[in-house]
Write a structure and sequence with these properties.
single chain; about 290 residues; Fic-like fold; 2 domains; two-stranded antiparallel ribbon
């Protein structure tokens, strides 16, 4: 595991670590406390957490038991043991912070009062706002797992984990779980240097459907990151209707020419434009809404 610093709530830095073995993100507790307290002094944040953790321990709080410790790189370039929490733990931390700022933070990070889609949509926004996308692998299965874990941790206990059961949707059977690891390795090794190659790889990943839920929402972000990295482009999803997208994806199982034409017509070079990204996330989530 290696840690990276991301821009977080109110454009503050927070160190995060991707845990590939457990399919989750870990966040530095002192850094998040600094965000919520608007405090830049790391020593003060560390002491604040020490005090809060002592109080929570006396109260037998669940938060203390779910805190992990990893070596993170500090400002001086050295690594120190640092308390970390996963996404669910960060929400629990915010709920235990005795100030009003935590409510705004929770709304930004997880929108806990909403549905699973609402929570994951808020996290999709945060993925863009925080710059966390910069630490995600491009075009790999690991990268897709990182996205899925970011969106759905705290909502699904299988967030970021490759499914081990067979699934079907609208009568279509996705890749058999028994052969899924091999299938995903083959997809990962597919070329992705041109637009046509990227779309074909995306269509194959859709057929594989590696997660129990949340495949489409994760894969569309994965696709955009791949397009941005390889071609300096992304899809303006707001220009593609739900009906057109779903019909094209259904046909892509046998022939991806229609989804390729649809995506090509919606390409834009506004890869860093906030409005384009946010509208795209909204449309992406509309694709998943039941009629």
């Amino acid at each position: 595991m290696s840690n990276t610093s991301i821009r977080f709530f109110n454009d503050r830095d927070v160190r995060v670590v991707w845990d590939d073995e457990n399919s989750k993100w870990w966040f530095s507790v002192p850094d998040v406390i600094g965000v919520m307290n608007n405090e830049t002094d790391h020593a003060k944040n560390r002491n604040y957490w020490k005090y809060l953790k002592g109080r929570l321990r006396r109260e037998n709080s669940e938060l203390v038991s779910v805190t992990n410790q990893l070596k993170l790189t500090a400002a001086d370039g050295k690594q120190y043991n640092t308390d970390v929490l996963d996404s669910a733990g960060i929400i629990l931390l915010a709920q235990n912070m005795p100030n009003s700022k935590s409510a705004c933070f929770i709304e930004w990070f997880a929108a806990p009062g909403e549905s699973t889609d609402g929570r994951s949509r808020a996290k999709a926004y945060a993925l863009f706002e925080s710059g966390a996308a910069e630490s995600i692998e491009i075009g790999t299965v690991k990268g897709l797992r990182q996205i899925h874990a970011w969106l759905f941790s705290g909502s699904y206990d299988f967030a970021g984990q490759i499914r081990t059961k067979n699934i079907a949707k609208r009568g279509f059977q996705f890749a058999a779980a028994r052969y899924l690891p091999q299938t995903l390795r083959q997809i990962e090794s597919m070329p992705d240097g041109t637009f046509d190659e990227i779309v074909t790889k995306y269509a194959e990943m859709n057929v594989a459907h590696p997660f129990m839920e949340g495949n489409g929402r994760s894969a569309r972000i994965w696709l955009d990151m791949l397009l941005k990295k390889r071609l300096g482009k992304c899809v303006d999803w707001s220009r593609i209707s739900k009906g057109d997208y779903l019909n094209a994806m259904k046909k892509s199982v046998a022939d991806d020419s229609e989804i390729r034409a649809l995506l090509k017509g919606a390409l834009t070079d506004k890869t860093g434009d906030r409005e384009t990204f946010m509208k795209g996330i909204d449309r992406s989530y509309q694709y998943e809404e039941e009629e």
